[in-house]
Amino acid sequence: xxxxxxxxxxxxxxxxxxxxxxxxxxxxxxxxxxxxxxxxxxxxxxxxxxxxxxxxxxxxxxxxxxxxxxxxxxxxxxxxxxxxxxxxxxxxxxxxxxxxxxxxxxxxxxxxxxxxxxxxxxxxxxxxxxxxxxxxxxxxxxxxxxxxxxxxxxxxxxxxxxxxxxxxxxxxxxxxxxxxxxxxxxxxxxxxxxxxxxxxxxxxxxxxxxxxxxxxxxxxxxxxxxxxxxxxxxxxxxxxxxxxxxxxxxxxxxxxxxxxxxxxxxxxxxxxxxxxxxxxxxxxxxxxxxxxxxxxxxxxxxxxxxxxxxxxxxxxxxxxxxxxxxxxxxxxxxxxxxxxxxxxxxxxxxxxxxxxxxxxxxxxxxxxxxxxxxxxxxxxxxxxxxxxxxxxxxxxxxxxxxxxx
Length: 405
Description:
Helices cover 44% and strands 17% of the residues. The chain contains 15 helices and 14 strands. The model is unreliable at 209-214 (pLDDT under 50).
C-alpha cells in the first residue's frame, strides 16, 4: 500500500508522529513517502545543514522524504505564523498535485489546518482517499492559547474546519472527548476513530543514558513532574499542594524537571513559601529523561482546569505508563478516565491543592508492592493498546478500509 504522508513538521523537528511513525508503517508493509517542510520548528530558523530549495529528497531507513519550501517562522507574530502555514500549504498542494507519485491513501497531520486544506484539495483533483489526524482542536486551541482573539477570524477558521471534515474520508482523534466534540459539531460519528498517541519509547526505556544528568531523587517519596512549565500547566496549584503536605507528610517531595515560561516564577513562589519539599531540575535531552522517570516513586500530570484540557490526553501520560510508575493524574476528563481504565494511578482535581495533596498522601502510604503493581498495569496497558506498533497497525487498518470503500 502506497501512503502519502503530509505533515508540516518532521524529524529532526520534535513531533509526535514523525520518523518513528513512518518507519513503523514501512515495517508493517507500507510504501511511504513523506512530504514535509524544511526543518525550522520550534525556533523559526532553518536547522544547521539545511537551506531552502525548490525540492530536496532524502531516504532514511526505507522512508522516502520530500522537503518543499516554506516561509520559516514560529514567533508570536500572527502574520508571520500565517505566512509560515500558508506558504507550506501552497507548496504542498503544488507538489502533491504535479510531482508526487500516485498513492493509495493520503495521511494528513493537523495542525496546522492548512495541511488539511491542501489534502482536501488533493482529494478533489486526484481522487485519493484522505485520513485526517487531528492532534489539536481548532479554533478552540487558538482561542485558549491567546494566539488568535478575533472572533470573526475564528469563525472563518471554524467554517474551514467543517469544510475539511466533510471533504476527508476518515478522521482520527487522540481522545474520546475530541470525538464527542466533533460529533456535536455535525461530523458523522462513523467517520471518526480514536487512536491514542504513543510516546518516544526508546528514550523512556533507556535506563543507561544518564550522562551526568542531575538525578537527586533518593530521599523520601518523590513525585515527579517532567515537561514544559507554562501557563497551561497551572503548576502553582501543585506548589500549594506541597505546602499542605510539608509538615503532615514530610517524606513527600515534588520534583519539577524541565523548563518553560513559568519556571522562574514557580521557583520564586516556592522560595517565598519556604517549600523545602520542592526540587527543580533543569531540562535535559530526551535521551536522559528515562532514567530520571525510573528513579521517581510516582509521576505527576497536571493541567489547568479548562474545558479543552478535559478532552485532552497530555503526551507525557503515555511516557509515564511506559516508565512503569504510578501516575498522579490531576487532569479531569479523558486523561483521568484512561488512568482509571488502566488501573495505573490515582486521580486528583485540576488546580485543586487539597485534592492533589490527598492523592499524594494516599500514594505515599501504599506499600512497595501496591505501587509496583500500579506501574506494571500501566506498562502492560500501554504495550497492548497505546504503543507505536499498535497505533500504526490501527492506522494501516483504516488505510485499507478507505481504499476499498
